[in-house]
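Me: I hope this is not a bother. Any chance you could explain this protein sequence and its structure tokens? It all follows right here:
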Amino acid sequence: MPSPITTAQNAPFFKKLGIYAKLSGPGWIQAAVTLGGGSLVGALYLGVIGGYEFMWLQPLAMLCGIIMLSAISHVTLSSKERPFVAAKKHISPVLAWAWLIATIIADVVYCSAQYGLGTDAVQNNLGLLNGENQTYVVTGIFTVFSLGLLWISLGGGKASKIIEHVLKGLVAIVVLAFMAVVVVLAAQGSIAWGSFFGGLVPDFSALFKPTASYNEAIAATGENATFWTNYIADSQRNIIIGAFGSAVGINMTFLLPYTLLKRGWSKQHRELSRFDLVLGLFVPFLMATSFLVIATSAQFHAKKDSIVSTGNYNAVVDTWLASKDASYDKNAESAQAQRDALPDADQQLAAMVAKRTAKDLAKSLEPALGKNAQLIFGIGILAMAISTMIVHMMMNGYAISEAFGKPGQKALFMIGAAMPALSGFFSPILWTGNPDIKTTLNIPAGTIATTLLPIAYLIFILLMNSKKTLGDEMPRKRSLINILMLIAGGAASFAAVWNLIGRYGSKDPFMHNFGMIGLIALPTLLLIGIVGFIRNNKSTSS
């Protein structure tokens, strides 16, 4: 009897899709990690600052990510080598280790943010376990559940797939929760569908000027119009550039090969792996983020009287005041009086462009949904947080076991998984009452992740062109594939450089120094990779 993959390859198109859908899995794991706190914050602000005009951004950014992940899957399934080993052997040990170390740092640091997101959903949106000293009860439950699930999944057989089923379910909950919000808004007639469909067409003019919906509000600020024009254009530009650098994280590039290998997939599964990335990653990401952008656009974009948290509003006002007076101190006793003295037009515009939280969005929907607003968002955000923290632990398990050259060893895998779990368990000290610790961790972690994502992309661009690695499995239409990979890699590189220049230009010495280190390290590592590739290919031909 032929295997399912053989049956699918010889089946009509729609039957093939049905079989592939049943066989999918690694792509859903990728979706579970990318649909985390970063995607939530990004989508919320995207709708606020750009409205429907930015509907094109996240799908296009993720498409670039899919291109690179498809290349990663091709190399992994064709070479019969683990990517870390292949990168050391065929390109450079320096780049391979930089990739692995960056993955570990990103997992350990960023997992704590998911714990914070999940805890906030439990205590504030759902109203559970929010009594005194109950925060560690919540983080403890997250830790035990996540590590327990990972341990069970190491058992082999049907148990090995349990984590995929759980993650599929959690991703589905995220999508359905945010879909419910959009359905309610659509039923109320709150969504401008004409603007929505128009926003699906890429428009890069937002890199340089505010969207037209701000024109009247900016004009009302009179002599301050130049500041607001620049502020909004800068915000739009940063979120556009940032989207191309963050749709696929550095640790996602490490995770995918190992989930493919764990499945036992080989070169005959290459078509399935591409389908899996579209169905399991692109579609859920597109739906979840689009629903959030639609909701925030409808509720907040260019609206004067929409709900905004005091902290986010003050952050915008403080920037305005600092631009007028270099000596302005946002922590001074007089700061609030200066904020209150802002002209009405400037206050209204500051409220328009301030960032929103999920709690702000839920509160704005209470007239339509009542208490269900907090419930829906609480469930969606909790599912988002749990799925992402599980995958952070999984990724680190793979990375640590690979670092010791013993992939598949259960003890090392669980030690690796426990590292971000412990970071998450003690996360309250990172996101309450001690901003210095959070900053101290996030700046170097963010710099490393930003700098090394283009390096990870470079590794697989080079491996896709390495005869020594792929042999007879070099891809057909390689010129076209190279062009697509260079576009995706170029977008990530531009985003990285932009981010690093921003940090280098900071007045904060800590941030400035890490920006400088990143700007030096990025071209250095690129050069090391290219030189290593050329040397290894010369040795192949000789």
